[in-house]
Specification:
CATH class of the largest domain: Alpha Beta
Order of helices and strands: EHEHEEHEHEHEHHEEEEEEEEEHHE
Number of domains: 2
Number of strands: 17
Helix content: 25-40%
Radius of gyration: 21 Å
Strand content: 15-25%
Largest sheet: 9 strands, mixed
Bound molecules: alpha-L-sorbopyranose
């Protein structure tokens, strides 16, 4: 078992790097019983951006090669683009280093299978960063479902809508590439929804046993950032050049930007059939104008229903027994999951708190030598569902998970 303070190595320093670093910084103040950590090494490719991030994040050192880091730390945070999830995480687990890996676990089922096997063979702890499981209102919903308040689970729904690719001129990034990302809205957003629905109902409705999917891409190619006068922005967590422009074409403002094909979906929808006969519908999109980060799930049972929307993260809509509609439950009491660590009742929480709760549970599992959920098994199951939805679209028929 590692000794404290746990030495942290982190691959990636942009969006998810900031979210997890913020969580690490908050823990000693709000979760004083969390294991002590030291931000040891930050990993990326672009040396100057990396040095700047390490300074801001409070990492002692930087490295441009993850190979030098994975066996030197106690915990490896893999926050890189999806195509960088498998090799570094497998190497870390083989070295006995615990891994928290961003979602989706891998770009393909074979990659997820490798990760699942590496986790099974390792004494280290492996977890997938499905952060929405750590929303207090979601935990509250799960408690109601587990207590039987909704009765027999009959129907689930989920949607995850964004609009940042609605504009055809929005820049190309690794998230638009099938090799690098696996899939588009399906994997990036649908992975969250499928995980959340499994988390809420799988103990009662069983696993999803069949899926029927439909994927669509609306914009066939996008401008490469930094070419033809376009802005040199990147969504690449590591500053790894292969995720954006390779050509070095930074020609002046008058030149046409280099266009690169979009090989993933902009939107997907799917139907789900659960082992107990429950039915489900899910959808996600990055082109739904008017929706920034609209993640909504609902569960309907024989006795009641719950509905959750990320845009109202502190609330759960609950319908039980003979009520004529839904009651809005404010999940902000001291007795609610995780809430007692923060502010007095009613002083609401936000998206970033989900990462604090997730990091608390994960690091506690590492320090105690216990397993963590969502595990790599969970990540693998979600990846199989994503692949099955894609296959169903290609074949034009339902696909069985058997
Ligand atoms: C971008 O689409 C993204 O950051 C996802 O990758 C995250 O998982 C989601 O929480 C917010 O949107």
């Amino acid at each position: 078992m590692p000794t404290e303070p746990l030495q942290i190595g982190m691959l990636g320093y942009r969006f998810m790097g900031e979210a997890h670093t913020n969580a690490l910084q908050r823990l000693p103040t709000f979760f004083p019983d969390a294991p002590e950590t030291e931000r040891a090494v930050l990993v990326g490719r672009d040396e100057s951006a990396l040095a700047d991030a390490a300074d801001r994040f409070g990492f002692a050192e930087t490295a441009t090669d993850w190979r030098e880091v994975v066996d030197e730390v106690d915990v490896f945070y893999n926050l890189g683009p999806n195509h960088l999830h498998v090799e570094p995480s497998v190497a870390a687990l083989e070295a006995g280093t615990s891994v928290l890996c961003e979602k989706p676990l891998a770009p393909s089922t074979s990659g997820a299978e490798q990760l699942r096997a590496a986790a099974a063979d390792s004494d280290a702890v492996a977890g997938v960063a499905f952060n929405y499981r750590f929303v207090p209102a979601i935990r509250y919903a799960k408690r109601l479902i587990d207590d039987g308040d909704l009765g027999e689970i009959r129907q689930v729904r989920g949607r995850y809508l964004q609009d940042w690719l609605a504009d055809a001129d929005a820049p190309w990034s690794w998230r638009n590439d099938a090799e690098l990302a696996g899939s588009g809205a399906l994997g990036d957003l649908g992975a969250h929804t499928l995980d959340l629905l499994r988390f809420l109902v799988a103990d009662h409705a069983g696993e999803i046993e069949r899926v029927s999917g439909h994927l669509q891409t609306f914009t066939a190619e996008r401008p490469v950032p930094g070419t033809g006068g376009t802005e040199e922005t990147t969504d690449d967590e590591t500053g790894d050049g292969d995720a954006v422009a390779e050509s070095g074409d930074t020609a002046g403002d008058d030149a046409e930007p280099e266009m690169r094909p979009v090989t993933v979906d902009d939107a997907y929808s799917a139907q789900l059939a659960f082992e107990n006969g429950a039915v489900g519908t899910v959808e996600a999109s990055r082109v739904t104008r008017g929706h920034k980060n609209d993640h909504t799930v609902a569960v309907h049972g024989s006795e009641g229903s719950v509905q959750f929307s990320l845009e109202r993260l502190n609330e759960l809509q609950v319908h039980t027994a003979d009520a004529r509609g839904y009651e809005t439950v404010l999940v902000t009491d001291e007795s609610d999951p995780y809430v007692d660590h923060w502010w007095p009742p009613g002083h609401v929480l936000g998206w970033e708190h989900t990462f604090v709760h997730e990091n608390y549970e994960f690091l506690t599992a590492v320090a105690d030598g216990e397993s963590f959920v969502p595990s790599f098994d969970d990540g693998y199951t979600v990846q199989r569902l994503l692949d099955a939805i894609q296959q169903s679209d290609e074949r034009g028929e339902w696909v069985s998970m058997a």
